[in-house]
């Protein structure tokens, strides 16, 4: 059995219902460096500011794998629970992020792409550094071998060959995690956040948990083959933005229509049906990436049609929806991501 760091044992295993939380916001980072691409980076100073805020305001930073297991088995988390993750195995996580995490006693998860690690790329972690990080709450999970666009066919590749390649990308990392680090948490972050029904079916069959790049909060009702996280770097690195996300709750959705994975030349549209309850529906707001507010048309008291005014350009587009709870202290949050493909990209859309 894997031993848990003392800090984890003191925060994750809350009993009783006092101050219990049934959901988990998860923070997503990439680089911790001031000289790397801003869109995926926080400076060491910004990262320390984030971690200091979590510590000073009583947030309970949990081991991700353990927290998800508790949510799925109806065991409460502590109030103000949160988890910290990184995508890609960048060396600056070890150099600039790890000392801060260690100082604060925070567990964390790094989703690693093993290709550059095995090649000894100087900008990526080594297995010995990861072993050191494990001793202070670090957990390492799957981000594929080569960080591909997982839904694209290679030149001349059949769908059957694509399926086998995707399986191998995942399986090779799982084997390395076990042989090099002793275990795998059986979690994967999809490169670029992209997955489809076939990939998510594969992940479920392997008994794994998958993460996309849509924002939101994890609850028992989430799709555990495509869980949300909150980006906390680049334009989202401001502490004021982070505070709102840390107070987020899962949108109380009963059903989603026309969410899907792919967009066409037509504007995207989806229908959200809320669970029975009293909500501040007049304050529900949805934003379309690059366009501003979405059009909202309430079909009835519980179901709203959310529609973009324009089609997405080629690439990934999203709609984020938020609504204050009755207290006004928290926001319900939901996000859906679509991929608008180009023919030459050879996406597998089924």
From TrEMBL:
<dbReference type="Pfam" id="PF01522">
    <property type="entry name" value="Polysacc_deac_1"/>
</dbReference>
<feature type="domain" description="NodB homology">
    <location>
        <begin position="80"/>
        <end position="282"/>
    </location>
</feature>
<keyword id="KW-0732">Signal</keyword>
<feature type="signal peptide">
    <location>
        <begin position="1"/>
        <end position="20"/>
    </location>
</feature>
<dbReference type="InterPro" id="IPR011330">
    <property type="entry name" value="Glyco_hydro/deAcase_b/a-brl"/>
</dbReference>
<protein>
    <submittedName>
        <fullName>Polysaccharide deacetylase family protein</fullName>
    </submittedName>
</protein>
<dbReference type="InterPro" id="IPR002509">
    <property type="entry name" value="NODB_dom"/>
</dbReference>
<dbReference type="InterPro" id="IPR051398">
    <property type="entry name" value="Polysacch_Deacetylase"/>
</dbReference>
């Amino acid at each position: 059995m894997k031993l848990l760091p003392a800090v984890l044992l003191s925060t994750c295993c809350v009993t009783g219902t006092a101050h219990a939380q049934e959901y988990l916001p998860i923070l997503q980072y990439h680089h911790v460096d001031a000289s790397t691409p801003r869109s995926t980076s926080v400076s060491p100073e910004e990262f320390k500011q984030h971690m200091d805020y979590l510590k000073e305001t009583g947030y309970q930073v949990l081991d991700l794998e353990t927290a998800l297991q508790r949510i799925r088995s109806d065991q409460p988390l502590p109030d103000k629970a949160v988890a910290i993750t990184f995508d890609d195995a960048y060396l600056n996580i070890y150099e600039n992020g790890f000392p801060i995490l260690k100082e604060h006693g925070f567990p964390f998860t790094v989703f690693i792409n093993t290709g550059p690690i095995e090649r000894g790329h100087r900008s990526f972690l080594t297995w010995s550094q990861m072993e050191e990080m494990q001793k202070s709450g670090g957990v390492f999970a799957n981000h594929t071998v080569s960080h591909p666009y997982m839904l694209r066919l290679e030149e001349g590749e059949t769908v059957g060959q694509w399926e086998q390649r995707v399986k191998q990308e995942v399986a090779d990392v799982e084997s390395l995690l076990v042989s090099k680090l002793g275990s795998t948490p059986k979690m994967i972050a999809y490169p670029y956040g992209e997955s489809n029904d076939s990939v998510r079916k594969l992940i479920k069959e392997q008994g794994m948990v998958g993460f996309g790049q849509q924002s939101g909060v994890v609850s028992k009702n989430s799709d555990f083959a495509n869980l949300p996280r909150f980006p906390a770097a680049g334009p989202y690195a401001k502490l004021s933005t982070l505070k709102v996300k840390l107070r987020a709750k899962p949108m109380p959705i009963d059903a989603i229509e026309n969410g899907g994975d792919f967009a066409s030349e037509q504007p995207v549209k989806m229908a959200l049906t809320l669970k029975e309850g009293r909500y501040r529906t007049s304050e529900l707001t949805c934003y379309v990436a690059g366009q501003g507010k979405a059009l909202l048309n309430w079909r009835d008291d519980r179901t709203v049609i959310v529609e973009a005014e324009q089609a997405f350009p080629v690439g990934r587009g999203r709609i984020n929806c938020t609504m204050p709870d009755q207290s006004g202290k928290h926001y319900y949050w939901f996000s859906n991501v679509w991929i608008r493909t180009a023919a030459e990209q050879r996406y597998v859309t089924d």
